[in-house]
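Hey,
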Amino acid sequence: MTETTSHALRYSTIDGEHRHELEIKRSRFITVLRRVESEEEARALVAELRREFHDARHHCSAFVLGPDRTTQRSSDDGEPSGTAGVPMLEALLKGAAVDGAADLSDTVAVVVRYFGGILLGAGGLVRAYSDSVSQALATARLVRRQRLRLLGVDAAHGAAGRLENDLRAAGVAVLGTDYGARAATLRVAVEDDDGAVTAFAERLASLTAGASAAHDLGTSWVDLR
């Protein structure tokens, strides 16, 4: 996915889907976290869980999208206003990332509640929904996403293999090599900042005695495993 407008260089997200259940005063709070890329995908999860847990009283939700977390939505789904969706959203926004930074995004949380017969009160509901999401995040696997600059390096067919090996040995991420009619193009990725691009250009010049140069192919978000 190409990204040109984001100010963020990296953020964290859920690795797939994760579920966690919490019981408070006989009420069951089933939290489902899922990685999504759009509001449509987020709302699709809510619809799925309404069918799966069709006899539950509430299906409250919150989600945050985008590297800069510009899209944020929440729903109380029948709970008293402000007692479910907003606390869930705040828990997502404060959720710890892989390296401790609070930058979780592209994630939807749905908390399905089965009422246990004991009223929790407004404060109790806020704590219950917040804790449900926080505990789910604490037990979920997260992945780090980073924006990388993609560069193309042209080389003669006979030299492409050796250049690829030299770049890999120098610690450069080589994504692949495309062979055209006249030359080969190596696709590499570096951190999306001018310093990293300059450092790569200097390394490339050293490896090829100035015979090859890099051209910009845009940016892309990748998962760091």
